Amino acid sequence: MKSIVRLAFFLLVAATFNAQAQEKFPGKTLSLIGEPAVTVFKNESADTLKIKGMFFNWLPYVETNFDLRIPPSKQDSLTLLFNFLDHIAINGTFRILNAPGKRVVCTVRSIKPKATDVEFEGDLHMENTYLLSYSNFLGINDNESRAYYNMGDKIKDFNLFPAIADSITKVRTDFLERYSPPVSPWFKRYEYDRLMYNGMMRKDNVLISKRFYRGKPIPVNDNYYDFEKDLSLKYTGEPITTEFLWTADTYLFRQAEKKKIPGLGGMLKMTDSIAGNTSLADVIKTRRLGTFYTHKREDYEREMAVTKLSTTVVKTMVDSIIQARLGFPKVGKKAPDMTLKDIDGKTVSLASFAGHPVIINFWAEWCGPCKAEFPMENKLYQQYKDKGLVIINICLETKEESWKAITKRDDLQMVNLFADAESYKKIKAAYNIGAIPRSIAIGKDQKVIANYYQRASLLKDADIAALLKN
């Protein structure tokens, strides 16, 4: 594998590049706070255009979902906060590249696998024209990642997977090399690096995924991770990619495990020793600090106090960003009400539990760690129900019949509620559900006590005693 040490980015004060010859990206490589980027959709089809998708913010990690309905001959737009040059996923079929302060205009004639017809204007129109051709080449854009997972399902010896992943990646880089008309030099470097890092990321993620769903270890040789030799955390000035950040994050976490530095804080310490005191380290640490925030606020406050960032101004800025983007539903504010059906088909609202402290646990059929909590959740329910504690388990992203079967099979004794697709959409927005398992603690007055509460297996008697007083 060729070395791809070109990747990194400029300092936090975004620079404007000389646009001549398009040797460098003509815009801002990074905005730590984030800047709006506008994506305009014009519908030139005969039918109402349905635009659904997702955007992943890295700083910190937050999922933003959108759903537009645009009549024929009309237009609508998305305004999303971008930190760097990044992609928006559209209908699972193609992606649109945008960046801080940029405006991309898309005239849509049809969205079909292998035959999506979109014309681009405004910023990044040449780059998006390439990406559309690439998505049509793949069939649908989701195939860029799906091919790796499909091959991972077919092999028994996972030590063979890195070579298989490299062959998949080469098909993608070959398309870039053959593409005509030629793309600008900066974009060719950027896209080549993105594809290579995507291949690296899948070598990690496919293995992690298989271990997660099988619920048991999958042994690999030490040289399985030889691809990490091509990973550099040194600053060189090229635009950053999300694929690089995922790869670097996993790499640093594993290095901390090798050094036997325990807990989530190990990755922060490894970032200091490997990436140093740089803006790149700031970005990586922001993601990890956001993870701390979503696990336990006390841990976040402790780590934030000792974590080194490039300047004190940046440290204050990072704390403000994390608090603003992850800190809802707001602690001390009334919890958003929701009304769902229980296992008997009866309608149950959160408001009906006023006067009781409540723990809400969000889970799904596919989430192994969620289901692993069931025995302890049952134990908590039995131990504290007579003292007024209410435990509500809400099932998401699962078929109703599967939810009922699991609820009965695992003898879930707390309040069990089901969120269909429409209910989940509202709950996800109101409760900022980005990852599960997720627990929220609510007081007797229906106000949020903790928007990221400990899992049942981690709770101590003192935690419950404090909750019962609220």
UniProtKB/TrEMBL annotation:
Residues 329-470 form the Thioredoxin domain. It holds the Pfam family AhpC-TSA. PROSITE patterns: THIOREDOXIN_2. Its main location: other. GO terms for biological process: cytochrome complex assembly. It is found in: Cell envelope. Keywords: Cytochrome c-type biogenesis, Disulfide bond, Redox-active center, Signal. Residues 1-21 form the signal peptide. SUPFAM superfamilies: Thioredoxin-like (SSF52833). One of its GO terms (molecular function) is oxidoreductase activity. GO terms for cellular component: cell envelope. It comes from the Bacteria. PANTHER family: THIOL:DISULFIDE INTERCHANGE PROTEIN DSBE. This is TlpA family protein disulfide reductase. The lineage of its organism: Bacteria, Pseudomonadati, Bacteroidota, Sphingobacteriia, Sphingobacteriales.
